[in-house]
Design brief:
- Helix content is about 30%, strand content about 15%.
- The protein is of the alpha/beta class.
- The strands form 2 sheets. It has a 6-stranded mixed beta sheet with strand order 1-3-2-6-4-5, covered by helices on one side.
- Helix 6 runs antiparallel to helix 7 and helix 6 crosses helix 9.
- The mean pLDDT is about 95.
- One iron/sulfur cluster binds next to helix 5, helix 8 and helix 9.
Length: about 260
């Protein structure tokens, strides 16, 4: 019988245990994935006892506290701390989310924090998003109109047409959806994935854009688009409450009826 084993160096080992030194009775046990490319070691799961009496409510507050007070080598991305930049996306308690928006109070028991799944890890909680960014660039996410027109006139949009961008323009490219999509896990190099397809649909839907047909033609590909099998993980993982699966369905419908 064929037996599949993970390579030995990919196994997550038990890491260091950082005991609370404050004597607090309000402690959260936090397990965090660690991997350092400069050390020739397996990934490990470190455990921290965090005093919640001196910590904000969000998962990002816990990470900041650990970095500032316990282990400064802990590496993660963050910027706005208000759910706007998308940089703090990670897997918290088994779900992809923004650590600055996720309250640790919602999580009973120990807290587990991992990088976004199925991506190469650069260090600790920082996943490699370079393929996703290249895919994003490939859909040319900017307004395409004749130069002469754009230089001379203000380009107006009716309220009705502007409304068509609701549920699309709010996307912050955090990649929570794409990295929760099984089709993207297995075909990430060729399938564009829900984040990029939602963005593609955002530009296809913009009444001011003059390259709708070309944009549709570009994504009409059995690998780029039709690898979506409507599993819907993307929509349930979007921390902004958007619906990438619906956007993908709308592109398919447009192609079927055009
Ligand atoms: S609906 Fe499509 S994009 Fe969303 S998780 Fe499923 S396969 Fe992926
Ligand atoms: S659709 Fe939602 S989950 Fe996906 S990239 Fe945009 S904001 Fe993030
Ligand atoms: S830090 Fe910007 S979205 Fe979380």
């Amino acid at each position: 019988m064929v037996q599949f084993n993970l390579p030995k160096n990919s196994k997550i080992l038990k890491g260091q245990y950082f005991k609370d030194k404050t004597g607090s009775s309000n402690i959260k046990i936090v397990h965090i994935y660690r991997w350092d490319p400069e050390k020739n070691e397996n990934p490990r799961e470190d455990t921290f006892e965090v005093d919640l009496n001196t910590c904000g409510n969000k998962v990002l507050d816990i990470l900041n506290k650990i970095k500032n007070e316990i282990d400064s080598s802990l590496t993660f991305r963050k910027s706005c701390a208000h759910g706007v930049c998308g940089s703090c996306a990670m897997n918290v308690d088994g779900q992809n989310t923004l650590s600055c928006m996720k309250s640790h109070k919602d999580i009973k028991g120990d807290l587990r924090i991992f990088p976004l799944p199925h991506l190469k890890v650069l260090k600790d909680l920082v996943a490699d998003l370079s393929t996703l960014y290249k895919q994003y660039e490939s859909i040319e996410p900017w307004l395409k109109i004749k130069k002469s027109k754009s230089e001379k006139n203000e380009i107006n949009q009716s309220k009705e047409n502007r409304k068509k961008l609701d549920g699309l323009y709010e996307c912050i490219m955090c990649a929570c959806c794409s990295t929760s999509c099984p089709s993207y896990w297995w075909n990430g190099e060729s399938y564009l994935g829900p984040a990029v397809l939602l963005q593609a649909y955002r530009w296809i839907s913009d009444s001011r854009d003059e390259e709708k047909k070309e944009r549709l033609k570009k994504v009409a590909d059995k690998l780029k688009l039709y690898r979506c099998h409507t599993i819907m993980n993307c929509t349930s993982s979007c921390p902004k409450g958007l619906n990438p699966a619906k956007a993908i369905g709308s592109i398919k419908k447009m192609l079927a009826t055009s």
